[in-house]
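Quick sanity check, GPP34 family phosphoprotein:
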Amino acid sequence: MSRSRRSIPEELLLLALDPTTGTTAQPQSLDLGLAGAQLVELALAGRIAPNGDRIAVVLARPTGDPTLDTALELLRRRGAPVRAVHWVGGPRLGLRQTYLSHLERCGMVHAVENQMCGVLPTTRYQATDTEVSREIRARLDGAIRTGTPPDARTAALAALAHAVGLGKHLYPGNEGRSSRSRLRDLIRHDPMGGLVAHAVMDVQNGVAGQARRPAPAVRGRRPAVPTPARGGQQVPDQTRRREPARVPARPSLSSR
């Protein structure tokens, strides 16, 4: 893929960077969004396609982007289509730092070394090419202001920005409420972006890890309910069998 254009993970990260503090907004959900943004970028490159709520590899040829190609190879090794929510919620250690380092090599950001509380070393990133950041923001603002359906790339970026919670960062306060609402509405303009955005929100809400609902109890039987036992352990309650009442024996005639 051409490197003259920023990828969606890079654009999402640039949107999340605070130009004043150099920190990233919503860092935990942003990591989920970056994993989802990789799926959108691979779909736009024709390497994967949605299959219901799953992602299927349709072309395993490398894209030329090392980070995307690593994700593509992991998807290919799965063999079968993978649920988007499982991919987004999987371990992605160092993914944000990988993209920050790449943006630094490209001259988009520069690292600022600092110390927290004068002891712990920290690294913050300041955007250096503000023109690119303004162009990304202008695309979102234009889609929100005009209400016209945006292109697939902008629609997917808007969907991911909403999913990771960047709405209040980009459009803060009461005056930004209508813009945040329109940002949310853009989620429907790109099927792949919408699928991934919903997966990001499902992971945050714990939907992916919910256990199945217990099966309904069979009619006529009392469901097993855990009852406390000695030592604080729980044991299943078992239905007690009723024993027949004992009838006292009548005295024999010889004992009278």
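Posting the structure with no commentary besides this: The chain is about 45% helix and 10% strand.
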